[in-house]
């Protein structure tokens, strides 16, 4: 019966997993889990081991896989196809990395100002995490400056972000601690600036998480 149900779903909502080809699935959670490799948390500022002796104001960053191969392919599908549908499965798959981390809110990195994208891929991941971990999602950040998309640029070619790169859209009531969520972490600069905005609003950032990690050690 499950095969018939999947076929009916596929006819109504045409989709197939980009990794295994299963119909009626934008991305199987098990397929997303298969791309993950166990990683120890790193310092968000230097990408060295966490706790970090160099950066006392840092926090741990967790990631699922290196930004290469099938994981990179899935990120591109998440950003540019399926209206971000694989994001929820990615978030569910990543949830084990935060099993021991407690927070009042999951905060996604927002879309850039003027972005043509109709969805926020980081928010899609955060929704999967929220469903699995029971931590509320608060989309409370927005960009405070207009910057060109950073994804196509190598770390060395990216302009430094100003201190006030982000601002609070609203102040979530009762939230004292947060985890920042993103799809890709390349240098750590975007996540750290987002953390600055949260901290200035009285919210402690206890961790950050991304599906993939790009080149290492570029932000200090």
Describe the secondary structure blueprint for this structure.
Blueprint: H1 2-12, H2 29-34, E1 42-43, E2 60-66, H3 69-80, H4 86-94, E3 105-108, H5 121-133, E4 141-143, E5 166-168, E6 177-185, H6 189-200, E7 204-213
Please give a quick description of this structure.
By secondary structure, the protein is of the alpha/beta class.
Question: How would you describe this protein?
Answer:
With 220 residues, the protein is of the alpha/beta class. It has six helices and seven strands; from the N terminus they run H-H-E-E-H-H-E-H-E-E-E-H-E. The strands form two sheets. A five-stranded mixed beta sheet has the order 1-2-7-6-3, with helices on both faces. The chain has a two-stranded antiparallel ribbon with strand order 4-5. Helix 6 (189-200) links the parallel strand 6 (177-185) and strand 7. Helix 4 (86-94) packs across helix 5 (121-133). The radius of gyration is 17 Å and the shape is globular. Mean pLDDT is 87; it is low at 1-13.
Through-space gap between termini: 55 Å
Order of helices and strands: HHEEHHEHEEEHE
Average pLDDT number: 87
The total count of helices amounts to: 6
| Strand order in the largest sheet | 1-2-7-6-3
- Catalogue the unreliable spans: 1-13
Query: In terms of quaternary structure, what is this?
Result: single chain
**Share of helical residues:** 25-40%
**Form type:** globular
How much of the polypeptide forms β-strand, as a percent range? 15-25%
* Rg, Cα atoms, Å: 17 Å
Largest sheet: 5 strands, mixed
- Give the total of beta strands: 7
Q: Specify the structural class.
A: alpha/beta
């Amino acid at each position: 019966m499950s095969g018939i149900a999947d076929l009916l779903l596929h006819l109504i909502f045409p989709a197939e997993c980009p990794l295994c080809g299963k119909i009626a699935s934008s991305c199987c959670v098990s397929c997303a889990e298969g791309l993950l490799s166990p990683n120890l948390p790193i310092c968000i500022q230097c990408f060295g081991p966490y706790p970090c002796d160099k950066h006392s104001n840092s926090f741990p960053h967790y990631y699922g896989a290196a930004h290469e191969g099938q994981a990179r392919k899935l990120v591109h599908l998440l950003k540019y196809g399926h209206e971000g549908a694989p994001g929820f499965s990615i978030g569910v798959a990543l949830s084990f990395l935060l099993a021991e981390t407690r927070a009042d809110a999951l905060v996604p990195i927002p879309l850039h100002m003027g972005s043509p994208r109709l969805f926020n891929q980081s928010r899609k991941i955060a929704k999967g995490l929220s469903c699995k971990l029971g931590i509320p999602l608060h989309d409370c950040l927005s960009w405070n400056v207009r910057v060109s998309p950073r994804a196509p640029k190598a770390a060395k070619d990216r302009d430094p972000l100003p201190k006030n790169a982000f601002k609070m859209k609203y102040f979530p009531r009762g939230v004292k601690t947060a985890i920042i969520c993103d799809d890709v972490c390349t240098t750590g600069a975007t996540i750290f600036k987002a953390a600055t905005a949260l901290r200035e609003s009285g919210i402690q950032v206890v961790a950050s998480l991304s599906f993939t990690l790009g080149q290492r050690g570029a932000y200090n």
